[in-house]
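Dock adenosine monophosphate; give full complex structure.
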Amino acid sequence: MISLPSRDFLDTPIEEFIISSEKVAHVQLGNSAEHALLVLTKTGYSAIPVLDPKYRFCGLINAQRITDAILGLEHIEYERLPDIKVDEIMQTDLPLINITERFQRALDLLIDQNFLCVVDAEGMFMGILTRRVILKQLKKQIYQLRK
Ligand code: AMP
C-alpha cells in the first residue's frame, strides 16, 4: 500500500517548483495573433502567457483560440492574422496561483490545468507551475515513503 505524502510536503511553498518568468516564453498586449502563432509554433508550447509592458499577467493565448478567430465559412482566413491583437482573443477566465501558496493548492488546481500562471499580490507575473513538475515531486515523495 502507498502511504499518503506527509503534511509537511503538502505545505511546501510552490516558489521552489516554479519555472521563473525570465525562462517563460510569452507575448505582450498589443502583439498580433500572427506573432503569437509564430512563438507558439517555434517553441512547441500549447499555450503561453500574455503580459502587459509592466510584466503583469493578462491572459493566455493558444493556437486553438487563434485558429478559431480566423475561421471563415469556407476556409481559414490567414490573411487576417496580422490585424487581430492577442488582447481580443486571449483567455482570461482561468485560475491563477499566488506565489505564496503551498503545494496542496497547486495539486488541486493542476487536476484541471496543464500548467498554472503564478502571480504576486500585485498581479505581477512570477512564472509558471507545470503539472509535469508537480507530478515529478509527488513521484519523488511517494518513492521516498516506500523506502
Ligand atoms: P510541459 O510540462 O513542459 O510539457 O509544459 C506544459 C505546458 O506549459 C506547455 O505546453 C506550455 O504551454 C507551458 N510551458 C512550459 N514551459 C514553458 C516555458 N518555458 N515557456 C512558456 N510556456 C511553457
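Observed: The radius of gyration is 18 Å.
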